[in-house]
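@channel sequence for tomorrow's demo:
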Amino acid sequence: MQPQGLESEMEDFLLRVVPGLAEQWQGSTPEEIAQIEGLAGRPLPPFYRWFLKRMGQSMGPLTFPRLDFSARRVLSSYAEELVVPHSRFLFIGHDSDERMPLHLFYDLDLPTRADARVTRRPAEGGARHDRFETFRELLAYGALLNFRIDRLPQACTALLRGNDPDVLPRLDPVMDSIGFTRPVPTGPCCGLYERHDATLVCTKVPREKPEAVMVFTLAGNDLSTIRKIMGTIATESPLRIKVSEWKPPLK
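structure tokens (generated this afternoon):
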């Protein structure tokens, strides 16, 4: 079972970051959760069970564009034979893209931290595109991106490259030293950092042979704040930064 502390920590984080979530989220019924567990053919990841209890009917303002994670949509997709039950992959999110939908599935054979890996692929199978080590990380990343980074005046996207795959152990001490907090526990493929005047998120694809590079987005109250943070990372760690985009573009 997942420790209650992790569920409580995630809940507190989302309620703090996403305005109006407490008033608008709606959970699934016990019957819906039991039906989904029957389709999985094994116990659901504890975090997914928490998600369904809290947001399985409606994610309120946390709803993702084009992605429907509702229990009703999961069950109807199986009932309509959009997907068929699989011992390893559990359908959890419907992609409404009309041209080439890549739906979200749990890879139940890759559990981690009371959760499991999230991958995208066509409903009928085919090439997989692993996205996050856990559904928890996907939701937390999306919350910070949409409700923190997108609402700050200046942002940049960049590559963060190290000498080995252990990028976050090199980044964490630097971020701690300049006053950032890590609101949600994550693994080696996702980093989440908050400060009163800035937010940073970074990810890389989970692989058997992990890469020594992560993509990060950093946003702050002004350009000088962002430059100072990146300068500290560059000078206080062995990591190298290559900026790919400023938003809005620099003049």
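heads up for whoever presents: The first strand starts at residue 67 and ends at 68.
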